[in-house]
């Protein structure tokens, strides 16, 4: 194994500087984030009915994602007690990094004898999270809308953590309840995530059955197959609980019926939007964020280099796998909503893109014949560009989101003061400034809009509120 890159690159502080810069950006955004839209609905639900009964009420009224609602009913009342949502977002990123480090350790123990320090594991976990952040198609919806994070972002966290438990060389009995709990949450939190994971589990089980020559005995003797079956069973059971809620029928009645051909057309159209309009916006992030993974691949390299043609075709396979997985990820939204889903439902595509970026960089470092000095220069330039881009975001977002959060706080103060007013006319509020990378707490000029109703009901403001 080549040790030069370890001393020459992995110990350089540039990666640490980028991780620090990203965490500063994340911290600024978190500190300026505020409760928005459906958050008010679930907050009132939790305050009035409690954690469990609030979930039951929601199951019978509109939202049947029982696990996510339980989670929301637990964290929203606590988070709303702080001036900002910073504590919640810090908790979220800490658990995400913990899950990533567990996953990395499980991968290393299972597939490699190479030792990596805890500091390096932490830096690459932050790098992965930062890549996931910049590869998201709406940072506001994916990372800063509390309702959305409970349903989608935390599903990804539980998937990574549950999968890391399944990858361990020796699966202990105490891991089994953890695996069941992780996949129960996913199934009861977000259909677009859980259905996709279930599809992948079925494909994997089918492949394993084929690999074992359709012998159930040989199939059952592999511990990994039992764990995948266990995870799939937990998903199915949890999805069944969500499906049985009365709120699902009410919600579904408001959505159009989508036939197979129309659903397939929507799926293809969604994939086209991704490939033609969204991915080109991520190219610069992909290039620069892949370079640190090249360094890691070089660190693991056994100098078994491959030709450029073979490397190229392998990278094409990686991209083809990404396209196939992205196509699958659009299926739930295409058929359940009858249209391309909102960007928060694209969270698995952001995860796949992050994995593609990491795998591409690692494979290039592992298999290509690199000059170490050239790779060091490439690494240094890439990291400096990433630090510069992140610093620009810090400067811009601090100004934009500070103005936004100040305006939201003023609006809330106005609403609190108006709770005991005698005038019964609709309250007209000044528009909020742009939220930057955050999810806006803005309401509509139409007082009957759902976000207006949630705000009105939470503050008990009759007959309602609207934006000027």
Characterization of this structure:
This protein is mainly alpha-helical and 468 residues long. It has two domains: 4-406, no CATH class; 410-467, no CATH class. The chain contains 21 helices and two strands. The chain has helices at residues 4-10, 14-31, 38-49, 51-59, 66-79, 86-111, 118-134, 139-144, 146-167, 175-187, 191-211, 216-221, 223-244, 246-253, 260-278, 283-300, 308-329, 331-336, 347-367, 372-417, 450-459, and strands spanning 427-429, 465-467. A two-stranded parallel ribbon has the order 1-2. Helix 21 (450-459) links the parallel strand 1 and strand 2. The longest helix has 46 residues, at 372-417. It is globular, with a radius of gyration of 24 Å.
Distance between the termini: 66 Å
Average pLDDT works out at 91
Estimated structural class: mainly alpha
Low-confidence stretches: 1-8
What summary fits the major beta sheet?
Answer: 2 strands, parallel
Oligomeric organization of the protein chains = single chain
Global Rg = 24 Å
In which range does the helix fraction lie? over 70%
Neighbour order of strands in the largest sheet: 1-2
* % residues in beta strands: under 5%
Q: What is the total number of structural domains?
A: 2
What's the β-strand tally? 2
Instruction: Specify the overall morphology.
Output: globular
The ordered string of helix (H) and strand (E) elements is HHHHHHHHHHHHHHHHHHHHEHE
Query: Total helix count?
Result: 21
């Amino acid at each position: 194994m080549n040790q030069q890159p370890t001393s020459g690159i992995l110990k350089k502080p540039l990666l640490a500087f980028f991780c620090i810069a990203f965490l500063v950006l994340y911290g600024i955004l978190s500190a300026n984030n505020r409760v928005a839209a459906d958050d008010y609905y679930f907050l009132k639900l939790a305050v009035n009915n409690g954690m469990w009964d609030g979930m039951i009420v929601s199951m019978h009224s509109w939202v049947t994602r029982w696990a996510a609602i339980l989670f929301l009913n637990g964290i929203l009342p606590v988070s709303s007690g702080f001036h900002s949502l910073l504590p919640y977002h810090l908790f979220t990123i800490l658990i995400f990094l913990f899950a990533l480090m567990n996953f990395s350790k499980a991968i290393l123990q299972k597939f490699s004898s190479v030792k990596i320090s805890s500091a390096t594991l932490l830096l690459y976990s932050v790098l992965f999270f930062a890549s996931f952040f910049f590869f998201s198609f709406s940072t506001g919806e994916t990372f800063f809308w509390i309702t959305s994070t409970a349903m989608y972002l935390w599903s990804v966290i539980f998937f990574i953590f549950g999968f890391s438990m399944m990858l361990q060389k020796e699966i202990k009995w105490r891991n089994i309840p953890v695996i069941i709990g992780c996949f129960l949450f996913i199934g009861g939190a977000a259909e677009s995530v859980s259905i996709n994971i279930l599809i992948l589990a079925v494909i994997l089980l089918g492949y394993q059955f084929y690999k074992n020559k359709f012998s159930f005995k040989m199939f059952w003797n592999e511990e990994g197959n039992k764990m995948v079956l266990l995870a799939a069973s937990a998903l199915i059971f949890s999805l069944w609980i969500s499906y049985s809620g009365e709120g699902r029928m009410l919600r579904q009645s408001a959505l159009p019926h989508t036939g197979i051909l129309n659903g397939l057309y929507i799926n293809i159209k969604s994939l086209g939007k991704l490939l033609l309009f969204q991915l080109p916006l991520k190219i610069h992030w992909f290039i620069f964020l892949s370079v640190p993974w090249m360094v890691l691949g070089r660190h693991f390299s056994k100098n078994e280099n491959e030709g450029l043609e073979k490397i190229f075709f392998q990278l094409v396979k990686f991209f083809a796998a990404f396209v196939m997985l992205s196509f699958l990820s659009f299926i739930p939204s295409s058929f359940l909503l009858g249209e391309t889903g909102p960007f928060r439902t694209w969270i698995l595509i952001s995860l796949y893109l992050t994995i593609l970026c990491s795998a591409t960089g690692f494979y290039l470092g592992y298999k290509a014949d690199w000059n170490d000095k050239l790779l060091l220069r490439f690494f240094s330039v890439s990291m400096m560009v990433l630090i510069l881009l992140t610093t620009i975001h810090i400067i811009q977002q601090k100004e934009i989101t500070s103005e936004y959060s100040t305006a939201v706080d003023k609006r809330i103060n106005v609403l609190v003061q108006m709770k005991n007013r005698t005038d019964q006319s609709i309250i007209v509020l000044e528009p909020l400034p742009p939220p930057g990378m955050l999810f806006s707490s803005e309401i509509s000029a139409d007082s009957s809009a759902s976000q207006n109703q949630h705000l009105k009901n939470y503050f008990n403001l009759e007959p309602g509120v609207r934006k000027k």
